[in-house]
Amino acid sequence: MKKLELRLLGGFELRTAEGEPVAGPDTRKARALLAYLAMHEGRPQRREALADLLWGLSGQKQAASSLSQALYSIRKALAPPGVDFIDATHEEVRLEPGVIAVDVMTFEDLARAGDPSSLHEALALYRGPFLAGLEIAETGYEHWLSAERSRLEGLAVDAGSRLIALRDKPDRTSAADAERLLALDPYNEAAHRHLMLFHALSGQISRAIRQYEHCREELKEDLDIEPSQETRDLHMRIKAGEIPPEAATMPAGPSKRDGTFSSP
User: Fold this and answer.
1) pLDDT reported for residue 83
2) Crossing angle for the helix pair 189-201 and 205-218, nearest 10 degrees?
3) pLDDT tops 90 at residue 253
4) Residue 195 main-chain phi, psi, to 5 deg
5) Transmembrane region positions (predicted)?
């Protein structure tokens, strides 16, 4: 049973399994170290590599000392007296498996699923860039952070795109999903079309047309291209009144998550 929850999507946040906030390690590098170990849960990491990751600008002796201090800070923040979540030797360090539920792991499992409910939950769980606000001027850490941010954002965009493709008819929940997707990928025409159709079916024709104009402006200003024929055709159908309102028939879709997550 997981004893703590670590949220890394959209920032760094540590909570008990019951949802109560935990202060966490008291330095930025100790937090970054905990995040790195949590992302490699159960897999030993060489001390030398960890020191180079976060203290690469320091001398070898100073880096090793700083690593030990950061591990002490993590131990103090995570465990009650007599309990140690960190398994460390002279050569390696690892976070004990089964101790911390990491939102990234839950997000990845949901995003790789193919059903609409899982994809919806994955998109809701992606609250923002990986470790937002925890940038540290160390080359090794910067490279790792950049790669993970890009990978996870790409996974969120892919999940959102697959989710929209599975929605034959938009509803309020899927429209919110389309808006989340556009926040990540403003050029996603499928998401724009989904919102155009949602507004048209809701009887908000002017809003549907504004959505098309917003799509066209984004594509033209940033990419110097026009919307696809499919998007233009939908726009013309909406303007011609070929899509009658039917808001009363639109289902609510799956409910939104409350922001919590569980371990896989």
Assistant:
1) 58
2) 170
3) no
4) -70, -35
5) none
